[in-house]
Each structure stands twice: as structure tokens, then as C-alpha cells.
Design goal:
The protein has 334 residues and is mainly α. It has four domains: 2-45; 62-145, no CATH class; 150-255; 258-330. It has helices at 2-54, 66-74, 81-110, 115-168, 173-181, 188-201, 207-217, 221-236, 240-294, 304-330.
Length: 334
């Protein structure tokens, strides 16, 4: 009895200590979850406000954004087409008005230009800013769809192998997508599988209709081809496990080819980086430094010291950033 009491006391103390240690982490996790919820609420509030303000007035312009609707479905964006167009028009209008007023006041009061030139400059800059904003809103779904496509293509050799194992063990075809949707790792294939499961559970689709819907809205041609072959195999009563195994081998071969191409491209990019962003700027820096010491002539409005600053603080960082963006865009995720 005494031993049991001692063990209970020790357990209680350990529980108290563990709860005290874990309480800061619980608070941090709670704050993180609250922050995420607040961001989602802010986004939804902005979309709702834009839709209430402009949604019904933009019906006439919606056919102009037909491609945008298709890209939004492929990017799996959780916002309606009308609400996104309304937000685009609202933000573009605000940017236009802000750029117009700010540029006019700066050119008139700070740079002391004439009112006519100030108006012309402010209108031109505000038109450029509003056009850039519209292009950004239009390109964002394309970028998300392309990122999802690359992830799907990278994951397909492994997910098709997993699906083949499930099919070989006698799992029903619809349950294969249920298993993909319930995976704990954040995979692009899981996102597609969740869409299929949602259509079956909530919207009453049968499995074939849900797969056809997914094949139409997926950004990946390979995943579309996989789903269409999956539908044909189920319809004809063929060997589903054999089909998935063959697809896994095929996608693995394609992945090997892509990796070889990527290694060749990477070697070319490394030579480009060394030439354009290391050796080239170094030569220009040496040349302009010598010219500055010798009192060389100016290049119009640009003297050697200013050219050195432009190369050091603008050209090299901008070139490195562009190089990193290109490298991220072509790099395989798996």
C-alpha cells in the first residue's frame, strides 16, 4: 500500500511538472493557431467586402476573365470567381487613386514641376501601377496552379506505387483515394484526393463522376492521364494494381530523365552565375575603381563612383535574386 501511495505521489508530481513545462508551448501553439485564424478571417472579410460592394456591378465584365476562372479552379483557391474579380477591381482602383494623388503631390510640391507635367506624370504612373496590380492578381492563380502541377508531377512516381500496393491488397478503388486524403504528410496528391472525397461525401458524386471532375480541374497533365486511365480500368474491370504499377514505373523513368536534364541545366546556370555575377562585376569594379582614382571622365550623368554603387548595391543583389527565383522554379521538390 505504501509503495502504491509513493508511486501515485511521484506520478502526480511528474504530471504537474510536465504540465508546467508544456504550458508555454500550449500558449505559443494557441497564439499561432489564433494568428492563422485571424489572417483567414481578414482575407475572407476583404473578399466579402469587395463582393458586396462590386459583385453585382461586374457581371458584364466577367466573360473577360474566363481564363482566370479556369486557373483558379486548377490552383484550388478557396474563393469564388466573382469575389476574386471584385477584389481585383477594388484593389486596382485603390492603387490607381493612391498613386495618382501621391505622385501629383510629390511632383507639384516637392519637385516643383508645373501642374500640367505633374498631371501627366501622375496619370502615367498611376496607370502603370494599376496595370501591374491587375497583372499580379491575374498571375497569382497561374503561379499557384504551376506550383501545384510541379508538386504533383514530382510526387506521382511514389503515390502511384502506394496506390498500387493498396490495390494489390484488395482495397476498393474509392478507398484508395480515401487513404490518400488521410495521409498526414502535406502532399499535393492528398489535396487532389481530398477534393475527390469531398465530392463523393458532401455533393453525392459517384466515384467515376468525382474522378472525371478531378481530371478536368487538375493542373497536371500526368495526373489527368492517371485518373483517366484509372476510370477506364475500373470501367472495363481490368487489373488495377497492374495498371498502377506500370504507371509508377513510367513516372519513375520520366523522373530520372528530368533529373538528368536538371543536372545539365544546373551546370549551365552555375557557369552563367560565375560569369555574370562574380567575374563580370569584379572586372567592372576594378575598372571603375581605377578610373575613379585616375580621375576618369564621367559617363554622362553617371560618374565612376556612382557606377560602382549601382553595381554593388543594385545590379549584384538583383541578379542574385533573379537567379534564385529561376533556380527555385526549375528545381524538383523531391
Amino acid at each position: 500500500m505504501k509503495k502504491e501511495r509513493r508511486q501515485r505521489k511521484i506520478r502526480d508530481k511528474m504530471t504537474q511538472i510536465a504540465s508546467q513545462v508544456a504550458s508555454p508551448f500550449r500558449v505559443m501553439i494557441g497564439h499561432g493557431a489564433q494568428r492563422k485564424e485571424d489572417k483567414e478571417k481578414a482575407k475572407s472579410n476583404s473578399w466579402m467586402f469587395a463582393y458586396r460592394l462590386l459583385g453585382e456591378r461586374l457581371t458584364f465584365f466577367l466573360p473577360l476573365f474566363k481564363d482566370l476562372d479556369n486557373n483558379m479552379r486548377k490552383a484550388k483557391m478557396r474563393i469564388s470567381f466573382k469575389a476574386y474579380v471584385s477584389l481585383t477591381v477594388l484593389v486596382t482602383s485603390v492603387v490607381f487613386a493612391s498613386a495618382l494623388l501621391t505622385t501629383f503631390l510629390l511632383t507639384l510640391l516637392v519637385f516643383r514641376l508645373s501642374p500640367v507635367i505633374s498631371v501627366m506624370l501622375s496619370v502615367g504612373i498611376s496607370l502603370f501601377a494599376s496595370a501591374a496590380t491587375t497583372i499580379g492578381f491575374y498571375a497569382y492563380p497561374v503561379y499557384r496552379a504551376d506550383a501545384l502541377k510541379r508538386k504533383l508531377d514530382d510526387e506521382l512516381p511514389f503515390t502511384t506505387g502506394y496506390m498500387a500496393i493498396l490495390a494489390a491488397t484488395g482495397v476498393q478503388p474509392d478507398r484508395i483515394f480515401y487513404a490518400l486524403a488521410e495521409l498526414k504528410t502535406s502532399l499535393a496528391t492528398s489535396i487532389e484526393a481530398k477534393e475527390i472525397v469531398r465530392n463523393i461525401k458532401l455533393f453525392g458524386f459517384d466515384m467515376i463522376s468525382a474522378l472525371e471532375e478531378a481530371s478536368e480541374n487538375t493542373p497536371s497533365k500526368h495526373f489527368k492521364e492517371l485518373l483517366e486511365g484509372f476510370i477506364s480500368t475500373v470501367h472495363s474491370g481490368g487489373n488495377l494494381a497492374g495498371y498502377l504499377r506500370e504507371k509508377s514505373r513510367q513516372y519513375m523513368r520520366l523522373k530520372r530523365i528530368k533529373l538528368r536534364k536538371f543536372s545539365n541545366t544546373l551546370s549551365m546556370l552555375s557557369e552563367f552565375y560565375v560569369t555574370m555575377l562574380i567575374v563580370g562585376p569584379l572586372l567592372f569594379i576594378i575598372m571603375f575603381s581605377v578610373m575613379a582614382m585616375l580621375g576618369g571622365s564621367d559617363f554622362g550623368l553617371l560618374n565612376p563612383a556612382l557606377m560602382l554603387n549601382i553595381i554593388t548595391y543594385i545590379a549584384i543583389p538583383t541578379g542574385s535574386l533573379v537567379f534564385l527565383i529561376i533556380l527555385d522554379a526549375i528545381s524538383p521538390k523531391w
